[in-house]
C-alpha cells in the first residue's frame, strides 16, 4: 500500500521521527487498553486446591477501568437519527444518547459495587466451570430454600430488591412462615460466573448444575424460580424432575400448545375457535415474532459476530436495551427508567436509570456480551412451547409480559398447576419493576407447598 505525502510534509528525518513517535504512541495505547484486563474480583484460594469448595468473592473494579469506560462512551461515533418518530427502527437515538450522557458524567458504579459486596457472594466450580452466586439465608426457621435465576439481558442485579422481602417477610407485612433462603446464581457466561470454553452449556446442563449447587450448600429439598431465561431453566429443571425439587414458580411461562406454535411459525392468522384471552396472546406472540425477535435470532445463530459488544459501551447498551415487553420494544419500564419519568403514560415502577446502568455496566466490566449471547446458541427448543411438566408449578402472568399466558394454555402445559395469578402491575422485568408485588407472588405461589 502506498502513502501519498502532501507537499507540506516535513523532511524525511522529521517524517521518520513522527512515524517512530506514532508507533510508540500505539504501543502505549495498547498498554493502556491492556489495563482493562485486570481482575475485577477477589476470590479466596481453595483449600488444598479443591475448586469445588465454596469460596467467598469480592468485587473491585480498578479505577483505570472506570476511566476507560467513560472515555469510550465520550468517544462514541454516533449514527444518524432514525427516520421515524417511534421505536420501529430500533432503540431510539434520544433514548441511548440520554443514557450515554448520564453514564459518562453522573453514574457511580461504586454504589453498585458496594451493594454487591454487602451481600454474601461466592464462587464454586461445577462440572468444570466456575459458578458465581449470592446466598442469603433467612433468620426464620423452616425457611424454604429457593434458587432464583435471572434472564437476558439481566443479571443477579435484577434480584437485589427482592432479597429482603423474601428472606425477611415479617418486615413486609408477611408471615415468618413465608420466608426463603435465597440462592441467586449468575448463568454460565454471565456476570462473575465462568465463560464456557467448550460447547454444551445450555439450559439442560445449567439446570443440572443448579441441583448440584443447592445440594452442595446443604439443601436436600428446594424450589426454583425464574423469568425470561431463568424461567427456561426452571422449566427444564422441572422436566428433568430431580427428587430434590419441590416445585417451580415462573413469571415467563412456557404454555403455547403445539398447534398454536405451528400456526405462529407459519405466520397464519389466529386459528378459529380461540377464546378472547387466547386470541390476545396469539396476537402478541405473532407481533413479537415479526418485529421484536431479531436479537434472539442473531444470538441464537451467530453470537460470535457481535464483536461490538466487547468494544463499544454504547453498542453494548443499545443491544441490551433492545428487549421488549408485550407491547413495545424497548420495554416501557426500561424507557421510562432511562428518562426518569413516565413515557407514554407508562411508569418504570421501582426501576431506575441507575438500576439499568448497573446491569449494563456489569456486562461491560465482565466482558460477557458475547458469552451471554451464546446461551441462546446453546438452546435448541422453543422457549414458550408448552412446558409439559408434572412437578408442582406456580405461574404469575404480569400485564406487560411478552405475552399474557391464558389459564387454559397454562393448565395444559403445567400438569400440576398449584397457583395461577394475573397481577395488575409489572412486566417482563417484574422483579426489577415491582419487587414487592413480585415477592408477594412468589410467596403466594409456593404457599401450597408449605402446607
TrEMBL record:
Domain of life: Bacteria
Epoxide hydrolase N-terminal domain location: 54-158
GO molecular function: epoxide hydrolase activity
GO terms for biological process, alphabetical: epoxide metabolic process
Secretion signal, residue range per the UniProt entry: 1-34
Keywords: Aromatic hydrocarbons catabolism, Hydrolase, Signal
Lineage: Bacteria, Pseudomonadati, Pseudomonadota, Betaproteobacteria, Burkholderiales
Record family assignment: Belongs to the peptidase S33 family.
Location of the active site: 228 (nucleophile), 376 (proton donor), 428 (proton acceptor)
Name this polypeptide is given: Alpha/beta fold hydrolase
